[in-house]
UniProtKB/TrEMBL annotation:
Name of this protein: Ribulose-phosphate 3-epimerase
Cofactor note: Binds 1 divalent metal cation per subunit.
Stated role: Catalyzes the reversible epimerization of D-ribulose 5-phosphate to D-xylulose 5-phosphate.
Chain sites annotated for binding substrate: 10, 68, 144-147, 177-179
Swiss-Prot/TrEMBL catalytic activity: D-ribulose 5-phosphate = D-xylulose 5-phosphate
Amino acid sequence: MDKNTIVAPSLLAANFLEIGKEVEMVNRSEAGWLHLDVMDGQFVPNISFGIPVITAVKKLAKKVCDVHLMIEHPEQYAEAFKKAGADILTVHAEACVHLHRNIQQIKSLGMKAGVALNPHTPVQILENVISDIDVVLVMSVNPGFGGQSFIPQTLPKLRQLKALIQQHQSQALIEVDGGITVANAAEIVAAGADVLVAGNTVFSAPDPEAVIRQLRNAK
Ligand SMILES: O=C(CO)[C@@H](O)[C@H](O)COP(=O)(O)O
Ligand SMILES: [Fe+2]
């Protein structure tokens, strides 16, 4: 996969009345992925959008569809998200009793497999699956809402994760999600991030394409 910083605008912060135009903006931009946050009101205290919205977005999207499941029992929906158009399917470690099985299921359906960690979850929990996964999504806010502030303890955690990945010669990309701005992007990349998810920073900007370019070039 691309080793330059990948920017993944989070559609959660888009104007839902203009969703087609927002996806076209991402298509024109230097973003590599389009991040789609699915919330069930159980695993997280919020409900966002689901399979019908992703199916519609996929018809227009030219970027990698990066689906972040903040739901309980993700194994019950993996096939439906594949059909909807997910290229990468990320499940939360905290929501999976059988994480290894869930990763194998995602890969057997032909998607890249991601595992997300809440801010309090140590990276060591991934030790026995790190060689099997394509993406580790490190939550840098508590999941459930856009527009929160970046949790600074994420930076040492990213360095620990980078070391774990190297130790196991894993190809997993490190994706960081929540509270990313043009001002803090460089230190997050320096700590090990390969992929920066950004919702409000992109979609609230007067020139979102310029912000995506700035995030991509942050060093
Ligand atoms: O998964 C989540 C929130 O749970 C994120 O993907 C947010 O959508 C990021 O939004 P910002 O913090 O960048 O506004
Ligand atoms: Fe997300």
